[in-house]
Amino acid sequence: AALYKIDGWGAPYFTVNSSGSISVRPYGADTLSHQEIDLVKVVKKASDPKSTGGLGLQLPLIVRFPDVLKNRLESLQSAFEYAVQSHCYEGHYQGVYPVKCNQDRFVVEDIVKFGAPFRFGLETGSKPELLLAMSCLCNGSPDALLVCNGFKDCEYISLALLARKLCLNTVIVLEQEEEVDLVIDISKKMGVRPVIGVRAKLRTKHSGHFGSTSGEKGKFGLTTTQILRVVKKLGVSGMLDCLQLLHFHIGSQIPSTALLADGVGEAAQIYCELVRLGACMKVIDIGGGLGIDYDGSKSANSDVSVGYTLQEYASAVVEAVRFVCTSKGIKHPVLCSESGRAIVSHHSILIFEAVSATSHETTPQVPSPGLQYFVESLTVEGRADYRNLYSAAIRGENETCLLFADKLKQRCVDQFKEGSLGIEQLAAVDGFCEFVSKAIGAYDPVHTYHINLSIFTSIPDFWAIGQLFPIVPIHRLDEKPVVKGILSDLTCDSDGKINKFIGGVSSLLLHQLEGNCGGRGYYLGMFLGGAYEQALGGFHNLFGGPSVVHVLQSDGLHSFAVTRAVPGQSSADVLRVMQHEPELMFETLKHRVEEFLPQDHDNGMTNASLANCLAQYFNNMPYLVATSSCCLTA
Ligand code: PLP
């Protein structure tokens, strides 16, 4: 646990149990009874047809814990409630979940259900997101906010107004100045009094990776001049009372409460000015940005960590708004936040398998008469490098030794390219140089673990923006890992590898794979990836989404049940995404079988059984299967 810093990034949800596996504590720190679910047992249960309605799910697997989601929501709510009380704040906190972080139906439905007691709402950034939010909030609290952000056309605005007509507490947040004209016009035509918000482009700038949305040149929001023009237009149209919410978002992963308080303070000043100008302001919406400590370092100077707790975050917000509004004599507004990452990251774990491992290690060659013969076929310069290398090794000058080893290797490659060195001799020099670096203790092989996963589909932020997530074996944690490894995925793409891990290291200490050909059954987990990864993943090489299980605690300290099991996308599913028609493709191939193959085959197969196998290929997931389950060779 210490090696992988699990206590740092994992607390209070993930811990190592006495069998050396990772256990999940679904209720986090609130658990009095220390209920724990062993992740390896979850993998076993998910692959067991008896526990999954006959499905027997294949890896990669996303394991979702709705109870963790509930705990995150409740922790956020109680952090704000505590801050409101302790700062004598006169408004309340009422958050919304930005559905773009993970639009999965059950994630959104769970958030609406768990958040209903404290009026938790949803935030959307597009028309389909609005449609899903509208239907989900029909089962939520009637006071829950439905915040409509994003670029809007007349369809988006009409739909948001329809939502208001349907008594959903909808706010249209203006992101662009032109949107105000559409809102005024369409709301009049539809006979709906809208509730309007305005997104301010703050001067406060967040310097981290996610800060490009902030500052005067940020992509979104209205400048002060534009806000003033909007206020004027609404006033002229007799709709200034509709302006009720001020929104801003200075970027995800806000690193420190100092920066947060700075931004919130600036926004609170704008809020007070809008009140002074006659708007009927009620809510200040501070956007997202509540960060996650991915590496457990609690650092305010890193993109993968944050220097505050949930409680410190909530207190900084409450204090900053209270200070400004109290000094201006303005009624304390309702506080809304749009935390996505902080709500959904912990609840889902991606589990995948390392199927084989290779090292670039060759069999080191001890100097021998054969080597002497090889040395004689080198050029004069090559022989000089060899002699220099040899004498540096005898003198124990390690640096010089490595320098000449590199030189010698390069010279031999050049000679090989020219055609004056054979392949055996090239291999001999590699082995010899490796022998020397091992002998002087400078040899540090890194193994490549091949993982049954697509990084483009399942960890797209690593590929796209270098986002690091904790990746650790979920078992054998009572055994010392001795192999340095990087992870290489299934795609035919050199970017499909993970060679940077939390702590900034370029390899991960892993366990040796068991079994003859590497063996199966070494499971790794990618944690804290519940936000964004599923929503952003692509279809590179047509690898589709992983299987998903939902796991709930059942009676007993360590008992659990798989309450929902969904197989990952089949090959047919992903082909359909690219406009192929799997049914037609199957018919074409079946026809081809009948046309080209005899009725009976040498291996006892028939054309009908071949066609069945083909059908199975369409129905199976695109990921690797064990050799024994391949129907053409079974
Ligand atoms: N609100 C808006 C407008 C955003 O753009 C984002 C994401 O960048 C969020 C909320 C969610 O932010 P986070 O995941 O940091 O909570």
UniProtKB/TrEMBL annotation:
BP-aspect Gene Ontology terms: response to cold; spermidine biosynthetic process
Active site: 492
GO molecular function: arginine decarboxylase activity
Key words, A-Z: Decarboxylase, Lyase, Magnesium, Pyridoxal phosphate, Spermidine biosynthesis
SUPFAM superfamilies, per database record: Alanine racemase C-terminal domain-like (SSF50621), PLP-binding barrel (SSF51419)
Reaction catalysed by this enzyme: L-arginine + H(+) = agmatine + CO2
Residues modified as N6-(pyridoxal phosphate)lysine: 100
EC number per UniProt: 4.1.1.19
InterPro entries xrefs: Ala_racemase/Decarboxylase_C (IPR009006), Arg_decrbxlase (IPR002985), De-COase2_CS (IPR022657), De-COase2_N (IPR022644), De-COase2_pyr-phos_BS (IPR022653), Orn/DAP/Arg_de-COase (IPR000183), PLP-binding_barrel (IPR029066)
Residues annotated as domain Orn/DAP/Arg decarboxylase 2 N-terminal: 90-345
One matching Pfam family: Orn_Arg_deC_N
Cofactor field: Mg(2+); pyridoxal 5'-phosphate
Pathway stated in the Swiss-Prot or TrEMBL entry: Amine and polyamine biosynthesis; agmatine biosynthesis; agmatine from L-arginine: step 1/1
Family as reported in the entry's similarity comment: Belongs to the Orn/Lys/Arg decarboxylase class-II family. SpeA subfamily.
Protein name, as recorded: Arginine decarboxylase
Organism: Cinchona calisaya
